[in-house]
Each structure stands twice: as structure tokens, then as C-alpha cells.
């Protein structure tokens, strides 16, 4: 009987799980869709019990019921950085405030920059204060929900909350902590003396561990809810984008993951710490590694908006129509800032724009313009990586958006760089299962679990077309930003 590893990841719009053997054989997978709660413009939330724990438990029960073999170890990952305030018994006090797509704490970002110094924050934490940061959201909670703040004793991210429900342990991994800017000192790789206690005040901060370390063992109560045997080791886990990168072998210096999902997320692996204000600098998944990361506020979300607007039941019809539209979308240009923009603009009041419309344009042109807009956004971010001294040497594409090939081809054509594609698109849950295997001491290699099987090569003949389109894309934002900001102020 071979070892069996369970990986479950809680994403923005679905939770996914996988059972994997030590040789990389995928025994079973399961998925549960869930909704993102958007109670106000600029707010994004999840109910930790109804979504995170209920999804995890249901998927764990489904997968463990498909085999008579016991699970050897459990890996968890989830969206982040997020802020879930709980009481001293880890009971949620409000829905979790999500990562950079939640832009409510703009005032608090400005205040902390002024108090601590923007340069000092970037140098100590490794990243600037943006809508991605946890510290400003803690201050927002204190200001706007004082009763919740008074009752808050602990704070969780998705993976640490799952660890708590499974094991009773209050543990957060170093990587996730490094995104709790400015509470973590990425130079010392520990909570930031002075800053953490000043911002978190009476809140107990979790014990720190590395993602592949054992956080605890499954309790009898959790075993009854999940079907996972009591006593099974559970990893500390980490943020889902990093387990997604791990799932496709992005772990060596120069490797860069492009994650095609609801948002586009980009991670570069480094062997030295780098600080670049347009990007997020973090510690890596493993000791001795570091990352630079970037994230667009929307990507697949814009594509889905076009699908819903045109009444298409799925993306196949839109993709077929977009293939009939030439590169440049017959003179259409979109800004994909439908939920503001994260890196490298950090402009929560940026807004989407479709320029060049005529009565001759079709749904295929509009859909192609949306895909090209996300490709231009990727190019903008990758230029920031190069300027930071971390030029991408190898691009690996992953995520649901790689299906069908049109989106990845447009991105390669805009970048004029190839992208590697791996055998499995299971994603972050596979990376979580791999962490579980490492936790259990298994001799495994992710490149054996999920080898590269294909590449998306750029068309050199399109370089000039997309260079021109990219220049217009960059110009369009600057030329229309004042109008976008004025309109944003009217959206409540």
C-alpha cells in the first residue's frame, strides 16, 4: 500500500481537492464552487465557516470515500493575504476581508505610510503598503467596527484557519506572514518588533512555521467531520498562488509562474531578497528562497463579464469568434481595470475602458480586446520584474485560462516569450498535496509529478503590432485616469 496525500485549496471562486500517490498518480479530484461576497464597491469577503471549512470538509469526505486507503498527510492552501478576525477560541467574528481586490483601507494605507515611512516599510517588510496588505485592514477594522475589534483575539488567513479547525493549532506559515505587511520583518523572518504590537495591539499573533512543516495532527472532532483519520499530520500550508507555482515546478531562480484565473497572478522565484516598490517582495515557500510577485485585480473576471454580457453559455463560442478577429481586435483597446488595479499601478480607483468602438465591431472583437488587455497587463508587470533585477528566464502557464490555447497564445505574442505548459492543470491543490508529501518525509519531486509537456511559442510576425498596441495601452491609462477617478467617486 503506497502513501496517499490529500491537498485541498480554497480559491476565490471554488475549492479544489486532490488525492495523490507518492509516484504522482492522481487518484481522485473534487471541486466545489462558491460565491465571492461583494457587499459594497471595493469590498470583497468570504464567510470562513460557510465557505472555507464547509468546502474543505465536503471535499475531504468525498475524496476519502473514494479509496479504502488512509490518508498519509494533509496539505492546505488558500487565498491570501486575507484578514479573518476571531475570538480566543478561533470562532470568526465577521467574514474574512480578502486580498488586494478588497480596497477599503485606502485611508489607513496613507496613515501608516505617513507614520512609519513608506521607504522604511518597503525596506523592512519587503513590499509597499497596498490594498494587498493586512496591516491597514486591521486598522480599518479598529476604526469602523470597534466592537469586533474589541472582541478580536486572533487573526487568520485561509490556510491557518483550516489548520486550526483540523488540529487546534494556531500557526501561520512564514510566506503568508511576509504578506501581512507591515507586521512581518522579511529580513529577520519574524514578526516585526514594535510595528506588529503597535498595529495588532491586544491580538495574539500565530506561531510561525514553514509551509512544509507539520502544524499539528488531525483531532478526533475534525476526523468525524472530514473523514480524515485522527492523528494525520497537517502542513502549515501557504497562500494558494504559491502552491499553484509549486504545482508546476516554479521553484528555481528565474522561474516565473503566470496564473490564468479570475485574476492574473505572477510569481518569480529568487535566491536573494529584492525590494521593488511596484511589486510584492516576500519570503519564499522554502527556507532560503524569496519571491517577487505581481497581481492584476481582474483578468478572467473581465473575460467572464464579456461572456455574461453577450449571453454566451460558455467560452467556446466567444473563443471561436475571437479567433476570427485579427491581432489588435480591429482597432479596439481595453483597459482591464474593472476592479481598480493592483501591481504595478496600485490604483484602486482605476476603471475599465473600451476604446475605439464602432458599429462594425463584434463580440469577437470585444472578447479578443479583453484577452489582449490582460496580456498587456502581464507585460507591464514583467517589465517591473526586469527593472527590479529579476528578469524572467522561464515562464510557466497554469490555471483554467490555459484551456483552449487562445489566451496563452495572445500572451506569448504580446510578450514575445514562450510559455511552458505542464501535464496537469489541477493547480494549487496539487501543490498543497506535494507539501503534504514533503511533510511526511516522502522522497518526491514535483517535476516527476507534473512534467512539462508542451510550450506556447510566440509569433515573431506579431511583435510590431503588439508593441504598438502596448504603447497605446500604457498611454490610454495616463490620458484617462482623471476621468476614471472622477467616475469612481460616483460609484457607491
From TrEMBL:
GO terms for molecular function: kinase activity. It comes from the Bacteria. Keywords: Carbohydrate metabolism, Kinase, Transferase, Xylose metabolism. CDD domains: ASKHA_NBD_FGGY_RrXK-like (cd07804). Residues 257-439 form the Carbohydrate kinase FGGY C-terminal domain. Gene3D superfamilies: 3.30.420.40. The keyword Chloroplast does not apply. InterPro entries: ATPase_NBD, Carb_kinase_FGGY, Carb_kinase_FGGY_CS, FGGY_C, FGGY_Carb_Kinase, FGGY_N. Pfam families: FGGY_C, FGGY_N. It is an enzyme of class 2 (transferase). Residues 5-242 form the Carbohydrate kinase FGGY N-terminal domain. Its EC number is 2.7.1.-. The keyword Hydrolase does not apply. Belongs to the FGGY kinase family. This is FGGY-family carbohydrate kinase. It comes from Phytohabitans kaempferiae.
Amino acid at each position: 500500500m503506497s502513501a496517499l496525500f490529500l491537498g485541498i485549496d480554497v480559491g476565490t471562486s471554488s475549492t479544489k481537492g486532490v488525492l495523490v500517490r507518492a509516484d504522482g498518480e492522481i487518484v481522485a479530484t473534487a471541486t466545489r464552487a462558491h460565491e465571492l461576497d461583494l457587499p459594497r464597491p471595493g469590498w470583497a469577503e468570504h464567510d470562513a465557516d460557510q465557505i472555507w471549512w464547509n468546502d474543505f470538509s465536503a471535499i475531504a469526505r468525498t475524496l476519502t470515500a473514494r479509496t479504502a486507503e488512509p490518508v498519509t498527510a494533509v496539505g492546505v492552501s488558500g487565498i491570501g493575504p486575507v484578514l479573518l478576525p476571531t475570538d480566543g477560541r478561533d470562532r470568526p467574528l465577521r467574514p474574512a476581508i480578502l486580498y488586494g481586490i478588497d480596497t477599503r483601507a485606502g485611508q489607513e494605507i496613507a496613515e501608516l505610510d505617513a507614520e512609519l515611512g513608506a521607504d522604511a516599510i518597503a525596506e523592512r517588510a519587503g513590499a509597499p503598503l497596498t490594498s494587498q496588505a493586512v496591516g491597514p485592514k486591521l486598522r480599518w477594522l479598529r476604526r469602523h467596527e470597534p466592537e469586533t475589534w474589541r472582541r478580536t483575539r486572533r487573526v487568520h488567513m485561509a490556510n491557518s484557519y483550516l489548520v486550526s479547525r483540523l488540529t487546534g493549532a494556531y500557526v501561520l506559515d512564514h510566506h503568508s506572514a511576509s504578506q501581512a505587511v507591515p507586521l512581518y520583518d522579511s529580513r529577520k523572518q519574524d514578526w516585526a518588533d514594535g510595528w506588529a504590537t503597535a498595529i495588532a495591539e491586544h491580538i495574539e499573533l500565530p506561531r510561525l512555521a514553514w509551509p512544509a512543516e507539520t502544524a499539528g495532527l488531525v483531532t478526533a472532532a475534525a476526523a468525524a467531520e472530514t473523514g480524515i483519520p485522527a492523528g494525520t499530520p497537517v502542513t502549515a500550508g501557504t497562500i494558494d498562488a504559491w502552491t499553484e507555482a509549486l504545482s508546476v515546478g516554479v521553484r528555481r531562480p528565474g522561474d516565473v509562474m503566470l496564473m490564468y484565473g479570475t485574476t492574473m497572478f505572477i510569481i518569480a522565484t529568487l535566491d536573494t531578497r529584492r525590494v521593488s516598490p511596484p511589486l510584492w517582495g516576500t519570503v519564499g515557500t522554502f527556507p532560503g528562497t524569496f519571491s517577487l510577485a505581481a497581481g492584476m485585480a481582474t483578468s478572467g473576471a473581465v473575460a467572464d463579464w464579456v461572456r455574461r454580457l453577450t449571453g454566451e453559455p460558455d467560452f467556446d463560442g466567444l473563443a471561436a469568434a475571437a479567433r476570427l478577429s485579427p491581432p489588435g481586435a480591429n482597432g479596439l483597446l481595453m483597459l482591464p481595470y474593472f476592479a481598480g488595479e493592483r501591481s504595478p499601478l496600485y490604483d484602486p480607483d482605476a476603471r475599465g475602458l473600451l476604446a475605439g468602438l464602432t458599429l462594425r465591431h463584434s463580440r469577437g472583437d470585444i472578447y479578443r480586446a479583453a484577452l489582449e488587455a490582460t496580456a498587456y497587463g502581464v507585460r507591464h508587470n514583467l517589465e517591473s520584474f526586469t527593472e527590479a533585477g529579476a528578469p524572467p528566464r522561464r515562464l510557466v502557464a497554469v490555471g483554467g485560462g490555459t484551456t483552449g490555447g487562445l489566451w496563452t497564445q495572445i500572451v506569448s505574442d504580446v510578450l514575445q516569450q514562450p510559455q511552458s505548459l505542464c501535464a496537469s492543470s489541477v493547480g494549487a491543490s496539487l501543490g498543497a498535496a506535494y507539501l503534504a508529501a514533503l511533510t511526511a518525509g516522502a522522497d518526491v519531486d514535483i517535476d516527476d509529478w507534473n512534467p512539462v509537456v508542451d510550450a506556447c511559442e510566440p509569433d515573431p510576425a506579431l511583435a510590431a503590432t503588439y508593441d504598438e498596441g502596448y504603447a497605446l495601452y500604457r498611454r490610454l491609462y495616463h490620458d484617462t485616469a482623471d476621468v476614471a477617478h472622477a467616475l469612481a467617486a460616483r460609484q457607491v
